[in-house]
Amino acid sequence: MLAHAETAALRRALEIAADPAVPLGPNPRVGCVLLDAHGAVIAEGHHRGAGTPHAEIDALSRASVSVAGATALVTLEPCAHHGRTGPCADALLEAGVARVVVARRDPNPLATGGVETLRAAGIDVELDVPEDLAAAAGLLNRGWEHGLQHDRPLVTAKTALTLDGRVAAADGSSRWITGEEARSEVHDLRATCDVVLIGAGTARIDQPSLTARRPDGTLLPHQPLRVVMGTGDIPPLPAPAGAGDTLLLRTHDPSAALAELFAHGRRHVLLEGGPTVTGAFLRAGLVDELIVHLAPTLLGAGPPGVGDLGITTISERLDLDLVEVAPRGCDLRLTLRLRTA
C-alpha cells in the first residue's frame, strides 16, 4: 500500500516520463521522483533518449540535499546492467535510498534484475502500485516493449468507414466521412506514435500533411516521422512549419518497411494508408491493432476500407477481437486486435 505522497509522486513520475520531447524509441521513457522521509519532493528526473542519463541518475544529480533514507518512485524497474551508463540499482544503493517503488518490471532480459539487487542489499522495494498507474506505465512504452518481443515496431492501422464499409465515394471524394470529434482524436493518436505511414497512392491523391494538430490548427509538441511507402513518382508532402521529417521507403514489402524503420529506432507506426497499403499489412500479418472510426452514413459504392486480402472462402476469413467500443460525437470508435488463435 502506497502512502498518499507516494501515489502522487508516482503519478508525477509518469507525467514527466511522457515528455513529448522524448523519443518513443529505441529506449524506454522513464520517470523518477525522490521523496524525503516526510513525503516532500527532493528531486525529479526523466530519461531523454539514447545516450542520456537514466531517470534515476537524472533525479539523483538534481538533488540539492542528501537522499539518504529517501524513497525513489520509478515508472520502470531500475536497470541492473552496464550499458552506456552504470546500473541504476547500484546508483540508488550508493546514494543511500531506503525505499524504491516500481510501477513496472523491466521486460528487457539484458536490463532486468534491479529489484533483486535492491532487495538483496536490504532496500524496501514495493511493486504493488495502484492499477491505473501500473496500466499507465505499461502504455507509456508499449511500442518499445513490442519491439523487444518482436524485433519490429508496433503497428496501429487507422481507418474511417461508412456503415457499408466505404472509405470514399465512387468519385473518390472522402472529406469528411467522420465528424470533428473523431478527426480530432486522430491527431491525438498521431502524437502518441513516432511514425505515420501512407502509401504512394494516398500521397499522390490526397497530399496529406500528416501532422498532429489541435482543433485550432496549431501543431502539437510531438510530431511523428512522415513516411511514404511505394515506388514511382511520389510528390513531396506539404511541409508546414513544425511538421515532422519525411522519409520515402522505396518498397511495397511491409516487412522490409518495418525493418528499416526499426533500424532507425522507430517503435510505433500509425498506418494511415488507403485500402491497398492496409490490405498489404493485414495480408502479411503485421497489423497489431486496428482502430476504426465508424460513421452512421451510407454510400452504397466506392472503395472498400481494406484491399484484397487473398481470401476466397468464408473459412479463410480474418477474425479480430473487439477490445473497445467508444462513442466519438456522432461516430463510433472500434478498437480491435487480430485474433492470434
Automatic annotation (TrEMBL):
Residues 4-126 form the CMP/dCMP-type deaminase domain. GO terms for molecular function: 5-amino-6-(5-phosphoribosylamino)uracil reductase activity; diaminohydroxyphosphoribosylaminopyrimidine deaminase activity; zinc ion binding. PROSITE patterns: CYT_DCMP_DEAMINASES_1, CYT_DCMP_DEAMINASES_2. Its cofactor is Zn(2+). Its EC number is 3.5.4.26, 1.1.1.193. Zn(2+) binds at H54, C79, C88. GO terms for biological process: riboflavin biosynthetic process. Converts 2,5-diamino-6-(ribosylamino)-4(3h)-pyrimidinone 5'-phosphate into 5-amino-6-(ribosylamino)-2,4(1h,3h)-pyrimidinedione 5'-phosphate. This is Riboflavin biosynthesis protein RibD.
